[in-house]
Design goal:
Elements: E1 3-6, H1 12-16, H2 31-40, E2 49-57, E3 60-69, E4 78-85, H3 94-107, E5 114-119, H4 124-132, E6 136-142, E7 145-151
Parallel strand pairs: 4-5
Antiparallel strand pairs: 1-2, 2-3, 3-4, 5-7, 6-7
The structure holds coenzyme A.
Length: 153
């Protein structure tokens, strides 16, 4: 059974080594960049508290995810900022596991009414995965990406 583990002093280097396929590089920032953002901040429509995690199968790092909270935000109080699975580990359910784990965490928090996510218009695998989990496209673009929202409550 996979699990997620917070990024820390011991594991950030091994998570920074994970990478997507060459043709997917445009879909997601490098993990080391996300880890730097988590330390020093990112400005997406106000302040977000960022939570980066590794996706692990046992001791083996297989992917990375990061979400953010901005509870006063009028539309999406949580945002899934990054999700990636290493090029050698894709198609084994880890991406879906990471998504379901985040949604479980958000569902348990009554401050979160809606969750946002965005993706490149040509990222069909991500788009399909998110749609099957209930995310609905708003029709708006955010920094060149399609914005989709899942209403939890
Ligand atoms: C998108 C990504 C995170 C999915 O992770 P994954 O572990 O490969 O995907 P999973 O094995 O969990 O499969 C998730 C779903 O996508 C489908 N899927 C996976 N690979 C697919 C492919 N190549 N073609 C079509 N469908 C595919 C699976 O059937 C599964 O469907 P389900 O929702 O019915 O269960 C991964 O492909 C990735 O890292 N891509 C590059 C980075 C990226 O695009 N990140 C998202 C940025 S918004």
């Amino acid at each position: 059974m996979p699990e997620i583990k917070p990024v820390n002093l011991e594991n950030w280097r091994e998570l920074a080594k994970l990478k997507v396929r060459e043709d997917q590089k445009n879909f997601v920032a490098q993990n080391v960049y996300s880890i730097a953002e988590a330390q020093f901040g990112a400005d997406y429509e106000g302040h977000w508290d960022l939570y980066p995690f590794g996706i692990y199968d046992g001791e083996e790092p297989v992917g990375f995810l990061m979400y953010g909270y901005n509870f006063p935000h009028p539309r999406t109080q949580a945002f899934i900022i990054r999700l990636m699975v290493d090029e050698n580990q894709q198609g084994r359910g880890y991406g879906r596991f990471g998504m379901e784990k985040m949604l479980e965490i958000f569902r348990a928090d009554s401050r979160i009414r809606s969750v946002g996510i965005s993706y490149e218009p040509e990222n069909e695998v991500a788009k399909g995965l998110y749609a099957r989990l209930g995310f609905v496209e708003t029709g708006e673009m955010q920094d060149g990406e399609m914005l989709a929202v899942l209403k939890l409550r």
